[in-house]
């Protein structure tokens, strides 16, 4: 064993088959392996682990844009993958040590908002907020990132089509190591639908007939599939999903359910529609599956930003208001995010308002309507025992704060919320001392 560990010419052939877990187990067997595990071996294994979790070809150049933990920044230039995983380890250590601190700051410049958009899916620390202009009552949007607000304009002559109706659904965010495009479904004054790739001049009209009573619309992460729901005159809802690559409808159904309020579509064309009573799944061949709910208020039924999880309200008989179930679409397993605290207000405010996934889906944060914030570690604990930080909370409890939460690296969690007077503020939960991040 020691001979193998000290034979450097053997390691290049053996190392290509070793994961981070393998290296950890070898190091626990003998200290000789600690010296034999070179930084380059650790970097390769770390990059493989990141690519497996992100399910895409993350490069060292991609990782250079990541906000590393300060204690890991000495590694980030030459060993960015190792620095990324060390940043996660340091965030988890701060949680285990109880080293958590919160700060609240106003959004700069000061903004007074009437609403906070749940569209598009906020990525990489950005949140879109809007209010009505005092001059002409037209919506004015701002992009808020790291406590700074800047105007966010849609293409001229268009308006955004929401992903939800009747205050259904939940705000979701995911920080990606490789930035992904944001697609919006927009409508022109003549009701023509179009797809806009945010930040570019790419604006494409859909060739389908113009829906006059459109309620909500969604686009897949890759921009290929566009789904929308239009209200029929008899109260039914007409669901369509268009494949832009093949230029055809893959779903064309009328559903007799007046409570449809959530819509999301995956990059493989699978369509997910949620109501207050049940959920509907449509495959690419228009196959229908109906999923009943527990008739809890504010039921959830939609995809996470990376489309890996189906976000649902609690599906077990012991679950109460506030519980979230994440169905892993690839592994077929469930992660239960159980609310640990009673409501600071009424039961209605105990509902989740927004949730965020960290890079690698390593940590999950949930902000509830009553201002409670919980952080979960799905990689540790069994089912509902993965809660690790149940005590953070926003300043208010009995007002419509409309909190939207997101990660900034592993050790900072930002939540934008609305004060009584409509002004916006940012609550930041630091996993570690604020001066250390």
TrEMBL record:
Superkingdom is Bacteria
Cited Gene3D superfamilies: YVTN repeat-like/Quinoprotein amine dehydrogenase
Q: What is the name listed in the Swiss-Prot or TrEMBL entry for this protein? A: WD40 repeat domain-containing protein
This chain's source organism reads Microvirgula aerodenitrificans
């Amino acid at each position: 064993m020691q001979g193998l560990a000290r034979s450097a010419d053997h390691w290049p052939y053996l190392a290509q088959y070793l994961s981070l877990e393998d290296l950890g187990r070898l190091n626990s067997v003998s200290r000789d392996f600690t010296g034999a595990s070179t930084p380059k071996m650790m970097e390769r294994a770390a990059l493989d682990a990141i690519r497996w979790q992100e399910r895409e070809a993350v490069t060292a150049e991609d990782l250079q844009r990541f906000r590393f933990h300060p204690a890991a920044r000495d590694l980030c230039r030459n060993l960015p993958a190792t620095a990324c995983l060390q940043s996660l380890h340091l965030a988890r250590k701060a949680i285990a040590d109880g080293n958590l601190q919160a700060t609240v700051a106003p959004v700069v410049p000061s903004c007074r908002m009437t609403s906070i958009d749940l569209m598009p899916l906020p990525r990489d620390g950005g949140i879109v907020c809007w209010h009505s202009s005092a001059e002409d009552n037209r919506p004015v949007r701002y992009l808020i990132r790291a406590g700074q607000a800047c105007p966010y304009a849609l293409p001229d002559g268009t308006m955004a089509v929401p992903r939800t109706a009747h205050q259904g659904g939940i705000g979701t965010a995911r920080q990606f190591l490789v930035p992904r495009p944001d697609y919006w479904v927009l409508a022109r004054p003549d009701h023509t639908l179009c797809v806009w790739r945010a930040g570019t001049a790419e604006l494409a009209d859909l060739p389908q007939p113009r829906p006059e009573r459109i309620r909500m619309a969604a686009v897949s992460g890759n921009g290929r599939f566009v789904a929308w729901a239009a209200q029929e005159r008899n109260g039914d809802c007409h669901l369509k999903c268009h494949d832009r690559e093949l230029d055809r409808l893959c779903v064309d159904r009328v559903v007799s359910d007046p409570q449809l309020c959530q819509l999301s579509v995956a990059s493989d064309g699978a369509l997910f529609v949620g109501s207050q009573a049940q959920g509907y799944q449509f495959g690419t061949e228009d196959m229908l599956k109906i999923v009943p709910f527990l008739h809890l208020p504010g039921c959830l039924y939609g995809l996470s930003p990376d489309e890996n999880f189906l976000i649902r309200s609690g599906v077990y008989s012991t679950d109460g208001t506030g519980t979230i179930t994440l169905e892993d679409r690839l592994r077929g397993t469930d992660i239960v995010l159980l609310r640990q605290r009673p409501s600071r207000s009424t039961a209605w405010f105990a509902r989740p308002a927004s949730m965020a996934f960290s890079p690698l889906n390593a940590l999950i944060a949930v902000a509830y309507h009553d201002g409670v914030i919980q952080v979960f570690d799905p990689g540790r604990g069994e089912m509902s025992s993965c809660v690790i930080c149940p005590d953070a909370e926003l300043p208010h409890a009995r007002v419509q704060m409309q909190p939207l939460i997101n990660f900034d690296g592993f050790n900072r969690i930002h939540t934008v919320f609305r004060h009584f007077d409509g002004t916006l503020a940012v609550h930041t939960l630091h996993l570690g001392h604020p001066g250390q991040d």
